[in-house]
Amino acid sequence: MIEFRNVSKVYNNGTEALHNINLKVEKGEFVFIVGSSGAGKSTFLKLITCEERPNEGQVLIDGQDISHIRKGKIPYVRRKMGLVFQDFRLIDHMTVYDNVAFAMRVVGASPKAIKKRVPYILGLVGLQHKAKHYPTEMSGGERQRVGLARALVNNPSMIIADEPTGNIDPALSYEIVDLLSAINERGTTVLMVTHEHSLVKHFHKRIIQIHSGEIVADTAAISKEQQAAAQAVATQETVAVDREAIRRAKEARAKADADAQPYATKEFTAPQNNDQANG
Ligand SMILES: Nc1ncnc2c1ncn2[C@@H]1O[C@H](COP(=O)(O)OP(=O)(O)OP(=O)(O)O)[C@@H](O)[C@H]1O
């Protein structure tokens, strides 16, 4: 579980990137983080990965306050996380297999464990047949699947992805988010920053919108009871759910959809067309 308590981040040059952020992401959630360029999205992720520290407040991972954690302890926190980057960050002179195996070697996995695990993970992302290829011989979508395999190989409890589809063909972006969804369904928490409103519209996930360092929308702002009832409605498991709860759930779902709607329309703008969209 990830929790932000009154978190603010000011960079050394005086830029306040985040202001008084409060939120919880429960284990197993899938969250899109959206917002215009400079809103504070990457800073938000960097506070989770301990790349940056907050000036105020606390960031908790599974109940552990990591805001002032000692440098030597950071690798232990990061082992809970699989990181996926916009620019893939693969090692070009290593094969796909070795790129993924390398992530296991650095945490001290045995050769036997590596030999067993890497082919399994490559199978999971549909790349077992490309194990001997080099990243430079692959498409952007395939490279990002290698990036996902590397992020997953040490069995993290969460995937932190900063614009993972930013450098790939829009059609292939869906494949990547499909894969992230499948991974999420197996219990891994997913946090994904994106500028692609079509993805956010297509995949019905929790959406957190950051604007000028503050959370201005969060579609999870419905009660647990309403979420459970909404789920029951969606799966027709209505036996134990009373009619009033169902009605409230439907209302909550409609409100959540309405809240999510701006992301599918002109109000949610990618940074490259900000001027156009705002003008
Ligand atoms: N290392 C840094 N030093 C100083 N200011 C920074 C630093 N990193 C980010 N900022 C500033 O903090 C604010 C938030 O930046 P951040 O990178 O978190 O935004 P973002 O929403 O991820 O933007 P983008 O979508 O363009 O990646 C911006 O004003 C940015 O210029």
TrEMBL record:
<dbReference type="GO" id="GO:0016887">
    <property type="term" value="F:ATP hydrolysis activity"/>
</dbReference>
<dbReference type="InterPro" id="IPR015854">
    <property type="entry name" value="ABC_transpr_LolD-like"/>
</dbReference>
<dbReference type="InterPro" id="IPR017871">
    <property type="entry name" value="ABC_transporter-like_CS"/>
</dbReference>
<feature type="region of interest" description="Disordered">
    <location>
        <begin position="251"/>
        <end position="279"/>
    </location>
</feature>
<dbReference type="GO" id="GO:0051301">
    <property type="term" value="P:cell division"/>
</dbReference>
<dbReference type="GO" id="GO:0005524">
    <property type="term" value="F:ATP binding"/>
</dbReference>
<keyword id="KW-0067">ATP-binding</keyword>
<keyword id="KW-0472">Membrane</keyword>
<dbReference type="GO" id="GO:0022857">
    <property type="term" value="F:transmembrane transporter activity"/>
</dbReference>
<keyword id="KW-0547">Nucleotide-binding</keyword>
<dbReference type="InterPro" id="IPR003593">
    <property type="entry name" value="AAA+_ATPase"/>
</dbReference>
<comment type="similarity">
    <text>Belongs to the ABC transporter superfamily.</text>
</comment>
<feature type="domain" description="ABC transporter">
    <location>
        <begin position="2"/>
        <end position="237"/>
    </location>
</feature>
<comment type="function">
    <text>Part of the ABC transporter FtsEX involved in cellular division.</text>
</comment>
<dbReference type="GO" id="GO:0005886">
    <property type="term" value="C:plasma membrane"/>
</dbReference>
<keyword id="KW-1003">Cell membrane</keyword>
<keyword id="KW-0132">Cell division</keyword>
<dbReference type="InterPro" id="IPR005286">
    <property type="entry name" value="Cell_div_FtsE"/>
</dbReference>
<comment type="subunit">
    <text>Homodimer. Forms a membrane-associated complex with FtsX.</text>
</comment>
<dbReference type="Pfam" id="PF00005">
    <property type="entry name" value="ABC_tran"/>
</dbReference>
<dbReference type="InterPro" id="IPR003439">
    <property type="entry name" value="ABC_transporter-like_ATP-bd"/>
</dbReference>
<dbReference type="InterPro" id="IPR027417">
    <property type="entry name" value="P-loop_NTPase"/>
</dbReference>
<feature type="compositionally biased region" description="Polar residues">
    <location>
        <begin position="270"/>
        <end position="279"/>
    </location>
</feature>
<protein>
    <recommendedName>
        <fullName>Cell division ATP-binding protein FtsE</fullName>
    </recommendedName>
</protein>
<keyword id="KW-0131">Cell cycle</keyword>
